[in-house]
Amino acid sequence: MTIDSAIKGLVNLASPKMGTKILAFSDDFFGEVTRMLNDKDPIFIEDKYDNHGKWMDGWESKRRRDGGNDWAIIKLGSAGIISKIEIDTSYFTGNFPPFFSLEGIYSETEPDKDSNWTTLIDKTSLIGDCKNNFELNLKETLNFIRLQIFPDGGVARIRLFGEVKYNWKQFNSDEIIELSSLKLGGSILAYNNAHYGDVSALLSDGRGKTMGDGWETRRRREPGNDWIIIKLAQKGNIEKIEIDTAHFKGNYPDRASIQATSIDKNITTKDLIQNSENWNIILNETKLSADNIHKYKINSNSKNEATHIRLNIYPDGGVSRLRIFGTKLDD
Known about the structure:
Blueprint: E1 11-12, E2 21-25, E3 49-50, E4 53-54, E5 59-60, E6 70-88, E7 99-105, E8 118-125, E9 131-135, E10 142-150, E11 154-155, E12 157-164, E13 177-178, E14 187-191, E15 196-197, E16 215-216, E17 226-244, E18 255-261, H1 269-276, E19 280-287, E20 293-297, E21 305-314, E22 318-319, E23 321-328
Antiparallel strand pairs: 1-12, 2-6, 3-4, 5-11, 6-9, 6-10, 6-12, 7-8, 7-10, 13-23, 14-17, 15-16, 16-22, 17-20, 17-21, 17-23, 18-19, 18-21
């Protein structure tokens, strides 16, 4: 089995899949600031240059000569509580910032440099060509982040792992909601294999853009089947399901089934996985087809109440999107 123990149950709040974007920045002469939010790992291309110099896969400012420092303000697509931070300086060796700081704020309007920012990480040293990881113990919900680098340089990626905090009171009790949505707080907890693609894309908006924009397992050479476990953003009664195999043509799963459970207590990921084989079946094993959106209506009954979902695919293959729709239930 495969469990990403570093970030299980958390989502990258800085991901463009969440709707996160750059609001403002001081300078990005060498490397476009938006590259810093890219979900894919940074790469290095030896002989690639553009009109400004060496092409780098990340945000890179010019060399400062005025005594100031560079900064970028990030607007989170979904407000949340951040618990883990990664400042990735991969491939920035002689041009990484020696120091950085991070601040946050919750604001209904766009903040600026004079807003009442809360310090998350005070001015701290960075290591070049390295994933610099930090843990936070916050209770505050934030929707804007300010990254400052001192005095200038390059950051390949910023990851802000945390928990989405959504105002569920805005939804009526009979309103159909995409309970699995990444933006609302749905998250991947565990899977047995995710050799290809981007597993978080499974819960993101829109149809997949390419075959790499989804969850795909390796070719299975032994008995059994592949699976993935998802925590819904909110406990709910499941009414509809969509399984989208967009772009998966010679490698879509032959069949799929879905199980569900409602858990009201803390449980370890290991126990969750072991118990999941016995969860209620809400979608019996059914044939899939290539590059297609498969829609299912679930009969209403008490077994449809769920906090967690297990998608089983037989025997292996790729799924672009999984959408679980239903009405919310109060905890």
